[in-house]
Inverse folding.
């Protein structure tokens, strides 16, 4: 059996996003190989509780490298650039631990798994004489600043500067270039990142989204037969999620009183968005649920007609995958992770242009689906194909196949 050394800073069986992604990769890969996992350890108790319940637990060994609580807070406070200084130091510790693990075990492949952001590829690429895989990698795409004007010119300027820094780092950051050159295989989380890898580093990358799903065993029912038409929006109330654009879209649909936008999420801007709905005259079409449990979001998905995903900057959003898992058609932008996994068989995409145009384009698609609900019903069977592509078991099988391929290539 192959033995794989995985570097995954964030692993938690009880979370979504990066920690949940890390956990799912580990436990599903363990059905194909033995995995040694270097992780930070904030959720050691959660990990060991769930590990005891897994039949493949004998194939999983966790190695913990904890950091102080203040560094953990920086990690989850998105936008706190101080974290990267501490994260680099953690990666140096991970390199030392990796060398000790390799001295005591016959490791076949090294896999840099998460965090998925490109700007910190870790240090394990420095270990020679063994295949090294990096990915899925995300974060190379830039945020379209035109959509942030409603947040103020300060936010626009900050994002424009971040875009410049992002591009420079993606092209020239020394450790990124070295890790890219060293890797036996590189995986891009979305098509846009794949294209930038090829353009900046002349490196062919495999395309694989970083997250996945466990498809439900039973067909999920949705109501689309007339009466109220339910749109669902779910996410953090931050500028990149573009709730304001969703509300502006409703201004073009005021003549459809049966249409309701159900909104799940929280954040310091929540009151501001409610006030915006009042000013736009669409408050009567909005149903505000606030911050709710994942179970509640899943329930709302099963009761909705269309998932309205207005984000302009994502890798592969967990909530988007959950919508597909629940056979809920998606309306979104043709960009980032959503542009990769949503097609006309399970939803509808519009191009990034400018906010006013996008509001009209979204409204046009929603109006069509409102009057032609049979189109949404006809999408139902196509979800099975998409779920199979995103199924964690299949993704782990593919990754294990990549491990075998790089090992075989090294032997020749």
């Amino acid at each position: 059996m192959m033995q794989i050394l995985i570097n995954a800073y964030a692993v938690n069986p009880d979370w979504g996003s990066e920690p949940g992604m890390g956990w799912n990769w580990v436990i599903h890969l363990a059905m194909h190989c033995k995995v040694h996992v270097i992780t930070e350890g904030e959720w050691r108790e959660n990990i060991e509780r769930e590990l005891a319940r897994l039949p493949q637990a004998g194939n999983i060994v966790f190695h913990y490298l904890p950091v102080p609580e203040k560094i953990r807070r920086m990690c989850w406070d998105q936008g706190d650039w101080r974290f990267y200084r501490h994260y680099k130091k953690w990666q140096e510790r991970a390199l030392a631990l990796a060398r000790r693990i390799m001295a005591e075990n016959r490791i076949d492949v090294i896999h840099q798994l998460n965090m998925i952001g490109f700007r910190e590829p870790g240090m394990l690429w420095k270990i020679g004489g063994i295949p090294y895989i990096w990915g899925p990698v995300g974060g190379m795409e830039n945020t379209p600043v035109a959509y942030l004007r409603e947040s103020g010119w300060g936010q626009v300027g900050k994002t424009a500067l971040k875009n410049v820094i992002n591009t420079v780092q993606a092209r020239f950051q020394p450790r990124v270039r070295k890790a890219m050159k060293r890797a036996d295989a590189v995986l891009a989380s979305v098509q846009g990142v794949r294209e930038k890898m090829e353009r900046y580093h002349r490196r062919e990358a495999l395309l694989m989204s970083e997250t996945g799903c466990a498809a439900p065993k039973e067909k999920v029912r949705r109501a689309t037969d007339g009466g109220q038409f339910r749109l669902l929006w779910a996410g953090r109330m931050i500028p990149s999620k573009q709730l304001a654009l969703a509300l502006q879209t409703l201004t073009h649909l005021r003549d459809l009183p049966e249409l309701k936008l159900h909104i799940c999420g929280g954040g310091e801007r929540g009151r501001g968005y409610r006030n915006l709905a009042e000013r736009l005259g669409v408050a009567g079409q909005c149903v505000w649920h606030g911050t709710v449990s994942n179970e509640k979001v899943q329930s709302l998905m099963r009761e909705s007609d269309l998932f309205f995903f207005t984000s302009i900057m994502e890798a592969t959003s967990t909530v988007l995958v959950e919508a597909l898992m629940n056979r809920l058609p998606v309306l979104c932008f043709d960009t980032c992770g959503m542009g990769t996994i949503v097609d006309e068989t399970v939803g509808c995409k519009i191009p990034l242009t400018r906010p006013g145009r996008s509001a009209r384009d979204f409204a046009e698609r929603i109006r069509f689906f409102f009057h032609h609900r049979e189109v949404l019903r006809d999408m139902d069977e196509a979800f099975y194909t998409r779920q199979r592509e995103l199924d964690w078991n299949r993704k782990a099988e593919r990754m294990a196949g990549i491990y075998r391929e790089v090992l075989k290539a090294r032997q020749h």
In short: DSSP finds 16 helices and 13 strands in the chain.
